[in-house]
Amino acid sequence: MQNLISTNAAFEAMLAGKKVLCRDATSTLLKEFRPISEFSADIFARSNTEFTIEIEMIELAGCSFPKPLFLSDIQVGQEIFIVMPACILRTKFDAENKDVNKAIIRGFAQPDADSAIDQARAISLSLGIDLVRSAFEFIQDVAAEKPVKRGKKLAKLENEVIVAPEDRCSLIIDALATCNSLDEVGAMVADLGQSDFTTDQWQRICDAKDAALKSLSPKQPDVAEDPNAPSQKLKDRFMEQLSAATCIQDVEACEEEIKGNTQLIENHRYHLATFVGSRKAVFVVREYESKLADLLVRVQDSQTAGEVNAITRYTKDWTEKQREPLIAAQSKRLSELNQTENQNPPSLLADIQNATTAEALDTLEAAAYKRNPEIVPTLLDEIKKKRAALNSQQEGDAA
User: Is residue 294 part of a domain?
Assistant: First the structure.
């Protein structure tokens, strides 16, 4: 089963060099994911498109399994499976667990049970041992599931036989002030109840707890102090502007604004340049498809071979690949015109020979220019002869 990702995540993954796959979710024919290189540049602008990242496989002793996880691929608390010599350890990732971290660094971590079995079986096969899948035993990491140890200070309080509420409140507040970790603070107040204290005492305990948590919590960096924050805001604004563009002129105007902005860092400038290229490609494709549709209609409406061939001059800036649909339509139309001429032989020559007036010849001469360019000279010569014959006849009648 493929893990789907968003369009933005797919775009970022492509820029990071990962193998991105995609498919049309509405298609009933092409249901498999394919490399993004097989799609046009406007794939990120389409709706109903699904993206995923290709899982890189490793083959060992004829057995394939997914590439082991990196530390950068795992989140704190995520369930992972560690391939060990005697079994497969099922645990949750904890950055402070040095043994698990070493196993991950050395390439023995998988995201699911099936992948872990595949890797363990491949290792066994490489040693000449062929085991069935059910032979691989799983054990649960109990240490990862055990609750946080209660602090010594709370244990000391619990050992007191009788402690007055006010004295107990003071002891708890003093103990909270000397806690060395967030876990110790949590253990200190885990079993406390508001009903055991007065409203004032409970409020003082809560204030002491909040102060301890605040002092022990890692300080979050101030976004305003981030030197790249102004560039990030500009990048986000340009991305929105490019996404909202309705024509290629809007994209080009935004591109000029990006080039002239001196606050953008190189990394953000590169991402914007890539997105500009993809947005341009969308409108180039739309413009080409619109122009092609218009020219195909004009080809079909053409009545002569000359009209059909003349349409090619509107495609001077097209590639051979882009011209292929138009050339196919032109060939089909020329074949239709030739077939019509063969089925209905032209009677224009006979009409010229049978003309009785100069006015009739004028009409036939206009029609002659619309015929196949190869026979036009012949028709014009016949008109010239017939006109001379009519003039001689008129002069004879006058005499």
Answer: no
